[in-house]
Design goal:
With 196 residues, the chain is an alpha+beta fold. The chain has six helices and two strands; from the N terminus they run ααααααββ. A two-stranded antiparallel ribbon has the order 1-2.
Length: 196
Amino acid sequence: MKKVIISILAVFLTVTAFAQVVPGMKYKELKNMYNAKEYVKTAGDPYSPGWMGFGSFVVPGLGQVLSGEAGRGIAIFAGGTALNVVGSVFTNGMINCFERDSEGKLVKDSSGELICNDKEKAKKMFWGMMGAGAVSLVYNIWNICDAVKVAKIKNMYNQDLQGRRAMEVGLYPTVDFALLPDGVKPVTGMTLSFQF
């Protein structure tokens, strides 16, 4: 009896783990169902991963917005903007450490170097600016890769909705009954299925 209960529980957990693909699903639900590395381009895919990546290179989050994930794209744009503001604050702080004349131009000494009023603050601001720039660079690279991934996953989802996937592999638990020398007993197993 324990084997039957465990088998039924395994079937239930498998069915709930492999949710059905229905129209209107968002990337948040799809990212756990699909692996972007398994994407195979087919005719009629609505999103070009290359163009979505390029769009996010030009404007952070644009590729995600064009792939139908407006909330994600807007959040990425806001994050990129915040990093740019932080970088600007450090840059302006560093520039304000240098002396200016009455017209607002930077003043140089007799050797041609800019005159700095607070070298320690200028150094801190410089390293803050460099740190913000490095974080911004990593963030933008991630943003481009994310736009490509979102486009691929949304295309795979669309392929499933249209029934155009090249191949699907499924592994499902099974329960069957077998006639054994000591009577009919439930037998559990796994079924591997391929759909082309």
